[in-house]
Design a protein that fits this description.
Order of helices and strands: EEEEEEHEEEEEH
Mean pLDDT: 91
Number of domains: 1
CATH topology: BH3618-like
Pfam family, one: FliW
Helix content: 10-25%
Shape: globular
Subunit structure: Interacts with translational regulator CsrA and flagellin(s).
Largest sheet: 7 strands, mixed, barrel
Family: Belongs to the FliW family.
Subcellular location: Cytoplasm
Strand content: 25-35%
CATH architecture: Roll
Number of strands: 11
Radius of gyration: 19 Å
CATH class: Mainly Beta
Main location: cytoplasm
Structural class: alpha+beta
Distance between the termini: 65 Å
């Protein structure tokens, strides 16, 4: 199978690679089939590419790579709809937003993780009221350093003169 996307051009894939989000994502109810692939080599980021609407792609992460103390509770109803039998069959991803020109301010939506049953490729975005929908990925101390580095590299120095 293949899709023609605006971001990646032609993507060839096998049907068994599709993740099925039968309820779509919040704000994107028509996108129900997705492909997921690494953002880059050795990256903690992934692309979640809509098969139904090829112009739509999201950056996602495994939030446990960034926040070791997270605990997401999958309600029985959600587990049932995903046909989850074992916790080992679950992978969880969160959507990332990166403000244009301000990557140091990237955030992830911990309040709306996407839960995927890796055995049957069924997924669902669930709601977690205990977490922020705009959780910074970069600690405040590092953000300040990155902003300062960006400012100094933009400003540059003019040499010469009389």
């Amino acid at each position: 199978m293949e899709i023609q996307g605006t971001r990646f051009g032609t993507l060839e894939f096998d049907e068994k690679e599709i993740i099925y989000l039968n309820e779509g994502l919040l704000g994107f109810p028509l996108s129900k089939q997705f492909l997921m692939f690494p953002y880059g080599e050795d990256s903690s980021f992934f692309w979640l590419q809509s098969v139904d609407e090829p112009e739509i792609a999201f950056i996602v992460i495994n939030p446990f790579d960034f926040f070791s103390d997270l605990e997401f509770a999958v309600e029985d109803e959600d587990a049932s709809s995903l046909v989850l039998a074992r916790s080992e069959d679950v992978e969880i991803f969160t959507l990332v937003t990166i403000p244009e020109g301000r990557p140091e301010e990237m955030r992830t939506n911990l309040a709306g993780p996407v839960v995927v049953n890796v055995q049957n490729r069924l997924g669902k975005q669930i709601l977690c009221k205990d977490y922020s929908p705009r959780q910074p990925l970069i600690p405040d101390s590092m953000r300040s350093q990155l902003k300062e580095q960006a400012r100094s590299s933009k400003g540059g120095h003019v040499a010469g003169g009389r």
